[in-house]
Known about the structure:
Elements: E1 2-8, H1 10-17, H2 21-28, H3 32-39, H4 47-57, E2 65-70
Antiparallel strand pairs: 1-2
Amino acid sequence: xxxxxxxCLLQYWLDHKGITQAEFARRSGWSQRMISHWCNNKRLMSxxxxxTAAVLLDIRMDELYHWQITAD
Length: 72
């Protein structure tokens, strides 16, 4: 069984935690533009970015995306 990433949930978590993209950019060191790209599914987050975001948001890495089962 394999999984593929679906829609990014970063904006959901930012809203849920009451954090703006600008504030998250300040805390994380990433540009607000990059965060916007992730939130709007224009770019995929790297594993390192996912880990850092998960730590900053106090969530699990797998909670940053919808995951879909793909055929083997």
